[in-house]
Specification:
Length: 252
């Protein structure tokens, strides 16, 4: 055990975790039994946490989480820098797939790339951080339309649905159909809709409240990212998105 470990402080942390996983609260006796500690120790710990506002008691006397923890949780979420958590995941994904990977966030009516991990190969296809791309025909943009924007049908009424390639969905009906497909499969595909010869795939990143806050994507040439690879790439992008989401407090 770490020589700097404080046993009672460690037990206090265990008490908080136990109560957090007990909907409706948990009585003192059960806390002592579950954590295998004397009842008097459980009493001292819970009373200390109660005084600090980290715990509360309901009408039955069972302990629940206190409002002080809510405040700390919100502050912790505000201090999270998604790029720091995403960076190693993007690098690992780029190494695993051999393709360029990126993280994007919704920025007005565009998707903004905020982090990029280049392909390990000399020939690569990737935009740089700071690039803004159209929502209706980019994989990350489709993620935001499907999972973040509340009323996409109304939202796209004000979008200029530019036709970048022959594959670009440039009518509201086609874009809405693509959004529905993205929702069903849980990830978005750009089938040479933004740039000819380039295929992209993206998945949503969520926070502790289940809200989509970003999208992680893979950009590649259709010669290396072929159609038969879509299922495998989808599994990889979903796993990467879940890893980043977990760092942001999400549970899957």
């Amino acid at each position: 055990m770490n020589k700097y470990h404080i046993p009672n402080l460690g037990k206090a942390c265990e008490v908080i975790e136990l109560i957090a996983g007990s909907p409706g609260g948990i009585p003192l006796k059960k806390i002592a039994v579950e954590l295998e500690i004397p009842r008097t120790t459980a009493l001292r710990i819970t009373q200390t946490l109660l005084d600090a506002g980290f715990l509360a008691q309901n009408e039955e006397g069972s302990f629940t989480l206190g409002t002080a923890l809510v405040k700390l949780g919100v502050q912790a979420l505000d201090n999270l820098d998604i790029r720091n958590f995403a960076r190693p995941v993007l690098r690992a994904l780029a190494e695993d797939t051999g393709e360029s990977c990126h993280l994007a966030m919704l920025n007005g009516d565009k998707a903004l790339l905020i982090e990029v991990a280049d392909s390990p190969h000399p020939v690569r296809i990737a935009s740089r951080p700071g690039t803004r791309v159209d929502l209706h025909c980019s994989s990350t943009g489709k993620v935001f339309l499907a999972f973040q924007i509340p009323e996409p049908a109304k939202f796209i009424e004000n979008l200029e649905l530019l036709k970048h390639t022959d594959n670009t969905d440039s009518t509201p009906a086609a874009v809405l159909a693509s959004i529905e497909q993205t929702r069903k499969q849980g990830y978005a595909i750009d089938e040479e809709e933004y740039v000819k010869g380039v295929r992209c795939i993206a998945a949503p990143v969520t926070d502790a409240f289940g809200k989509t806050i970003a999208a992680v994507g893979i950009t590649a040439s259709t010669s290396t990212f072929t159609k038969p690879k879509i299922r495998t790439m989808a599994d990889k992008i979903l796993k990467a998105a879940n890893l980043i989401s977990a760092s942001m407090g999400a549970s899957h």
